[in-house]
Amino acid sequence: MRVVLMGPPGAGKGTQAKYLVEKFGMVHLSSGDILRAERADGSELGEKLKSYMDAGELVPDDIVVEIMAKAIAKQDADKGLLLDGFPRTVTQAGALDKQLEQLGLPLEAVLVIEADESLLVDRITGRRSCPKCGRVYHVKNIPPVKEGICDACGAELVQREDDTEEVVRQRLAAYRKQTEPVIEYYAADGRKMIRLDGGAPLEEVAQQAAEALAS
Ligand code: ADP
Ligand code: ZN
Questions:
Q1: In terms of pTM, does the model score above 0.85?
Q2: Which of 3, 31, 133, 214 has its CA 20 to 30 A from that of 97?
Q3: Domain extent at residue 60
Q4: CATH number at residue 124
Q5: What is the pLDDT of residue 215?
Q6: Which of the ligands is closest to the CA of residue 60?
């Protein structure tokens, strides 16, 4: 199964991706994770990525398309694909369609998770994660037993640099302006669209997503 997962920052894409991958076994490619890994190496490209990402702005299309095309090409096509955070502009969506067409592996569904802006801001600004094992918490909704410490491995939790309120507002603005048109692009092209309420409990959203994808 080849699916694009869309939604504003904080809608729960990462969490849903985990559920879906467990259920359907496809390969999960998160552009945010891939770009963060890429920028961590301190190269010139890394510095460039950092400047966009820390400001909550989208990384330019040519850079993202190249990085994601490589990541997609590396995967075992039989396993299926869950693209999370990519494409985020209509230009990226066009480039992705072209690549998948050439591979003979067109997209089968577009999952869109929506949620109110106030909920998104609260979720993201409260988000803390473990740099060691990757577990994600929320200061109010999913607090660790001991404040600031990972339950699973004891490491000190951190906040992503772009998870402050100011940057979150910028990321949401980028989503509305540049990414929402991608939903229109797919809908106008008659793709299978699955729209979910990201304000619902995570398990509920996951179940609805799984049912819609299986049908
Ligand atoms: P979120 O969806 O919560 O904003 P991500 O981890 O998906 O977080 O993305 C973090 C940042 O990485 C974005 O704000 C943007 O700068 C960059 N990024 C990720 N995916 C893309 C993309 N497809 N195109 C451009 N920039 C991207
Ligand atoms: Zn941990």
A1: yes
A2: 214
A3: 2-214
A4: 3.40.50.300
A5: 86
A6: 1
